[in-house]
TrEMBL record:
Organism field: Haematococcus lacustris
Database matches in PANTHER family: PDZ DOMAIN-CONTAINING PROTEIN, PEPTIDASE S12
Keyword Lipid metabolism: no
BP terms from Gene Ontology: proteolysis
Alphabetically ordered keywords of this record: Hydrolase, Protease
Annotated InterPro entries: Chloro_Bact_Ser_Proteases, PDZ, PDZ_sf, Peptidase_S1_PA, Peptidase_S1_PA_chymotrypsin
Family: Belongs to the peptidase S1C family.
One Pfam family cited in the UniProt record for this chain: Trypsin_2
Protein name, entry field: Protease Do-like 1, chloroplastic
Keyword Protease found: yes
Organism superkingdom: Eukaryota
PDZ domain location: 141-226
Amino acid sequence: MQLDPEEQRTVRLFQDNARSVVNVSTTASYGPLFSPFFAQQQVPRGVGSGFIWDTAGHVVTNAHVIAGSKEVTVTLSDGTVAKAQTDTAMNPGNSGGPLLDSAGRVVGIATAIVDPTGRGISSGVGFAIPIDAVRGMVDQILRVGRVVRPALGISIAPVPQAMQGRAAPSWGSQAERPAKAEGVLVVTVQPGGPADVAGVQPTRRELSGRLLLGDIITGINGRAVRMQKDLFAALDQCQDGEHHLG
């Protein structure tokens, strides 16, 4: 049967990238930890996929594939087998297997599927972690052995609707206010945290009962912050110790 051009491109895409995809299988220890009569047994725990990240041979996979495992076996496309021993606690969602675009570029890491039946049957809808987010996490893991997430030491809330699009009030924080009340409102500041050290002011109430709104964050490292998701996206691009609030 003759394949149409689109199907032929899909086949070539698979052939060009299959060698970078690996099979990941895991085992876990089963049995009493301390017993003179029974030794712990290594039993199969699960399987998943991953892919080769760089020329050094580092492999990226979903954390939930190997979480809780004692031994991880990686099988390459040519049948070569490599093993790794681990006692490290893993956090779900840090990394996973490749999602490719039509040019064969990795654009995301496949993470989960929508399964209305609860029996592991895909409904055709899946979720992936964007590769830009994964790249930063993998670089940190290779460099320091773990993911270090930047933090400001604050809790935030949307700017009150009554203030949006209007001139910011002169009362409240001693910090300079923007011309328009756009950004995110600082509600609390952790004592001794980065924001506290930088002089960021929280929302507070006077003895008279008057509410004094805290600082409004409008930017980080030159990136505009108009709502909460903008703040989180900007923080993901920051390194520890280089936060600059606006």
